[in-house]
Amino acid sequence: MPAETLTPERILEATEEVLRRYGPAKATVVDVARALGVSHGSVYRHFGSKAALREAVTDRWLDQSHAELSAVAATEGPAGPRLHAWLAALFASKRRKAGDDPELFATYMVLAGENSTTVDRHVETMIGQLSGIVTEGVDRGEFAPCDAPSTARAIWDATGRFHDPGYAAEWSTPGIDAAFEAVCELVLRGLRP
Amino acid sequence: MPAETLTPERILEATEEVLRRYGPAKATVVDVARALGVSHGSVYRHFGSKAALREAVTDRWLDQSHAELSAVAATEGPAGPRLHAWLAALFASKRRKAGDDPELFATYMVLAGENSTTVDRHVETMIGQLSGIVTEGVDRGEFAPCDAPSTARAIWDATGRFHDPGYAAEWSTPGIDAAFEAVCELVLRGLRP
Fold first, then answer.
1. How many angstroms away from the CA of B156 is the closest CA of chain A?
2. What is the pLDDT of residue A187?
3. Residue ranges of the DNA-binding region (chains A, B) (predicted)?
4. Interface probe, candidates A127, A131, A157, chain B, greatest B C-beta count within 10 A
């Protein structure tokens, strides 16, 4: 296919497919170019290095749940149920990724380990969304006055078992939903005035 | 040294030393026997198999902080500060183990992966101590009435970042103490009536 139709998004899709097929240790830019039927030079015009390409595909993977979560964060109404819905949507999204395609999930765990800056930026985005919900809860008098960003980080930390990929093996065990609800309840109670 | 002085504790000490020296993949019962100057039959008289020996040494390692934590759990006075002190003592103990001897810590991470039943039992002991503090807090009217065991598990889960060895790399980062205090505060607020 002609190089002019080569968009960054198409390259990233092909990269994911190549990573899935060869694994993170073996996948190369040449494999990606071959999958697209273009020269590796064409790929390098969009992503200057193999590292840049791997970072971009990691970023895309992490971003996949952002839009859905932003929509939950932006809903109207009381902040408490919204916070619960946001945490449940995050857990569901991570669990889906881990359960639907465990090999690809393991691949992205390797890539995440290589791209800690990208992961940190993703976490900051997540905590920013939480912070917005906390601020609204305080403004509405539902939550006690607090420093919203640091409270948001505490909520992120306290719910790690339900979004940190290191716990993925536990996400299909019996009792995990009850455990999630118990932590959510404790956190929501902790926010009360 | 004569076999009659061979106690389980001495075998476990030697096992830890052998694990430290050879790593979990290579350490054998013969190495342990050689370190003690006894036959491997003498070791097998106390621990029936290599797996049993590895399980016992894992158990010993996990138990090392139990006594200290039990003492904190058993102190008199308000349950809130006691819960905070218990969580701080747990974090300090894990952090000390990870920081003082990172190689041995990594070795025990491997052993813990092999002995999940032992680890589960350790976690149940920890949650049992937490549950006792929660019950006393409820009895004293400091904490809201609740199902103490499931609340204790929620506290355990919510504070995982500060005791789960998977997070050991974060325990020396700046801001970790503030993060710990923020989660503790959220949890303690969540227990209020």
1. 9
2. 98
3. 28-47
4. A157
